[in-house]
Amino acid sequence: MEYTLLTDLEPHKKHATIQVCITRKWLFRGANDNAPLQHVDMILSDQKGNAIYAEIPANLANQKAPDIEEGRIYNISRFRVCAAKNGFKVVDGDKMIQFTFYTIVKRVIDPPTVFPKYIYRLTPFDQIESNIQTKPNFLGMFLVS
To answer: Of 18, 115, 22, whose CA–CA distance to 76 is shortest?
Structure first.
């Protein structure tokens, strides 16, 4: 089966099927961790190392999210491609994926081993301070000793 690369997704492509690794998955509740769930967020990566942000709305979270695990490979179809959010971007790009009631997610049983394990973009140390008061990117850090 032929899969669409994440870079080739467009809002008008209604019948795209992607094969992706769930690189990261988390619950978004807003500013308060005890607040109601707003959506389930994910970073998806394809075999070429492209990444895209994906979101499962709260009303579909119980139906769509429980069977999706970080580090696993899935074939996903019947989703919506739309403009990426303007603030707190976790990956570069102008598009994102929204799951719908019709989205189909199938785990790949014998996946290829070519998916990258981590997706990241390094910010040069001298540019970190200039990004603190802006919201175009979500900044995180990890330390390696």
So the answer is: 18
* Radius of gyration of the chain from its Cα atoms, rounded to whole angstroms: 16
What is the domain range of residue 114?
6-131
Run of H or E including 82:
strand 80-83
**What pTM value is reported for the model?**
0.81
Tokens of 77: 């179809």
Give residue-wise pLDDT tens across range 56-77: 999 999 999 999 999 999 999 9
Instruction: List all residues 6 or more positions away from 37 whose beta carbon is below 8 Å from its beta carbon.
Output: 27, 28, 29, 58, 61
Examine residue 58 and state whether it is found in any structural domain, yes or no. Answer: yes
User: 139 lies in a domain?
Assistant: no
DSSP for 94-127 reads SEEEE--TT-EEEE-SS--S-S-S----PPPHHH
